Structures are given as C-alpha cells and as structure tokens.
Amino acid sequence: MGEFTLAECARRNGVATDALDVGVDETGALAAAEQAGTMLTPLPPDETAETPVERAEGAAPEAVAIPADEPLAACWRYAQGRWRKMPDMARMACAQTLFAGRCETTGSATYGRWGQQTLRLVPGRVEVSDDNRSFRTLVEQQPGCVIP
User: Fold this and answer.
1) I need a surface site. Which of 4, 64, 83, 111 has the fewest CB within 10 A?
2) Average pLDDT in the 71-85 region?
C-alpha cells in the first residue's frame, strides 16, 4: 500500500490511467469510450418525484398472458438521459413494452426498470439485476428482435 505511483499500479494491473470519456450517446443513453471497457448503468429513478405516466408508443403491444399471482410494479423507460414512468405491469410485459422490436449492437445497451429491478437489453437477450450491478439473463431475444 502506497509503494507505487498510480500510473505504476495501473500499468501492473492492466488498467488505463487516462480520464474516462463518459457522456451521453445519440439515444440519450450513458456512453463511455471503448478504452473504459465497461457498460455504465444509469442510476434508478427517483420514485418519490411526481412523474407523469407515459403511454406506450405507437400501436398497443400484443396482449401478454399474465398468471393470476404475477405481481404488478411500475415499469420505467430510460431514454434521452431521464426516466419515464410507464403504467404498472408484470415484469415480462414491462420487458416486452420496453424492448420488443429493438436490437442492440455489440457494446451498447438499453435500460429500463421494473419495480426495484433494473432491466437491460444487450445483444441477444434481456438481463435483470436486483442490485444495479450484477446482471443475469431474464430472457433470450429471438430473431427479428422479438421478446418471447
């Protein structure tokens, strides 16, 4: 501890010492330069703030069969640097509302929230996290960017 300079420690551990180039991409999602090598997850929305409910864009999504015991929770869309509240719905209905018909490219992600969970669309799948850091696969995306 304290024996090496920051630059020497970074070199030994294979970490860049340059400042991270972090900003917002053309879709409003958080972005970092390739050298950062990490996907940045937006912080959860402030659920105590008064947020108007956003209606689904375009045509209504197909009806989703929801088991009677499936809980409902607020569904949030992250776009253009801010969170927008959708109506309360089941988790898979939220994933379909947020991500159906959308494909991601390598190195990019689209975010949403369902209740206290973060949803993330990455190439080929939708992932979920309880802690906003460690993600696991919720559902694989089918060809044509379809969420089953």
Assistant:
1) 4
2) 91
